Automatic annotation (TrEMBL):
Region named Disordered: 194-215
DNA-binding region, residue intervals: 35-54
Pfam families with a match to the protein in the record: TetR_C_11, TetR_N
InterPro entries registered for this protein in UniProt: Homeodomain-like_sf, HTH-type_TetR-like_transc_reg, HTH_TetR, Tet_transcr_reg_TetR-rel_C_sf, TetR_C
Keywords for this protein: DNA-binding, Transcription, Transcription regulation
Domain HTH tetR-type, chain residue ranges per copy: 12-72
Domain of life where this protein originates: Bacteria
Name of the protein in its database record: TetR/AcrR family transcriptional regulator
Length: 215
């Protein structure tokens, strides 16, 4: 039993060292210059160990990114759907636009167009679960009376994430908090969310810039 527990601890240390090494190298050299050999050398593990757990460097970096993304972008429920969506999107923008996770995310998005296995893994490990979590939070808002019962929640999720993805792919400056607030406001209004408050503002909305640039 003691040997088994020790082995598990060593495996987790090796896994974490591999993920950290991949992120460091991606930030230092760029995704395209990272190799499994370099990851193994930096992590102090063998290539055989890496290939036993992952199929490619893309798979390594995807796991590192998903680990961080899920932890940094929870769907909390404060009872204010606008506030909660802003918190989530702002956290997602920050994580995907700054090292060490920004360079990894950019590389994964590029590589998945040429690697079908990686594209499938992105859908299974990142996109699918995050979309489901976003829909679940919006569904809870429906139960709370903040979003109409007939609202198209899957479309709303695409509308929320679409501008974030668009800016990242085209390497435009990431959204600031005011632009994210405008985005959330527009999406909720498109769902027919009932205005609230003396000035007809949605719950948790903040004044938005006159330009209202969502792109």
């Amino acid at each position: 039993m003691i040997t088994s527990q020790s082995s598990l601890r060593r495996s987790e240390r090796s896994r974490r060292a591999t993920l950290d090494a991949a992120l460091e190298l991606c930030t230092e050299k760029g995704y395209g210059r990272v190799t499994v050999e370099a990851i193994a050398a930096r992590a102090g593990v063998s290539k055989k160990t890496i290939y036993r757990w992952w199929s490619s460097k893309g798979a390594v970096l995807l796991e590192a990114f998903v680990d961080a993304f899920v932890g940094a972008t929870p769907f909390v429920d404060t009872g204010d759907i606008a506030l909660d969506l802003r918190t989530h999107i702002n956290s997602a923008v920050k994580l995907t636009s700054t090292p060490p996770y920004g360079p990894a995310y950019a590389g994964i998005l590029s590589e998945m167009h040429y690697d079908d296995a990686l594209a499938e893994a992105v859908q299974e490990q990142l996109v699918g679960p995050r979309f489901a979590a976003a829909e679940a939070r919006l569904a809870k808002a429906q139960e709370q009376g903040q979003v109409p019962a007939g609202a198209d929640l899957p479309l709303a999720v695409e509308m929320l994430y679409g501008p974030v993805y668009y800016r990242h792919v085209l390497r435009k400056p990431p959204q600031d908090e005011a632009t994210v607030a405008t985005l959330v406001d527009h999406v909720l209004r498109s769902l027919g969310a009932a205005p609230d408050g003396p000035r007809g503002a949605l719950p948790g909305t903040v004044p938005r810039p006159a330009s209202g640039d969502l792109s």
